[in-house]
Fold this protein.
Amino acid sequence: MCLAVPARVVESDGRQAVVEVMGNRRRVDVSLVDARPGLYVLLHAGIAIAVLDEAEAEETLAAYRAVMGDAAAPAGRLAEGAGSAQAPDGVPGEGEAT
């Protein structure tokens, strides 16, 4: 099963952006949407697939936090590149089997 997660855009350079999800930052592909800093996007497999309003994004993130508990605590790392094989902290990136 796949999930899409709301992410706040921190900075954008057109096709790529740095987004923040529950305190974690990641560089992602935003070429499918108009992603500007401060907006929320729906992130799936390292690609922003839609722009969300802030209320909807915060409601969804609150639900994730409620379900995940301590697992939703921020790690604060920036993983470079959508589709990277491995994040710096040893957590599998997109496209890597677990």
Notes: Residues 77-98 have pLDDT under 50 and may be disordered. The first helix runs from residue 54 to 68.
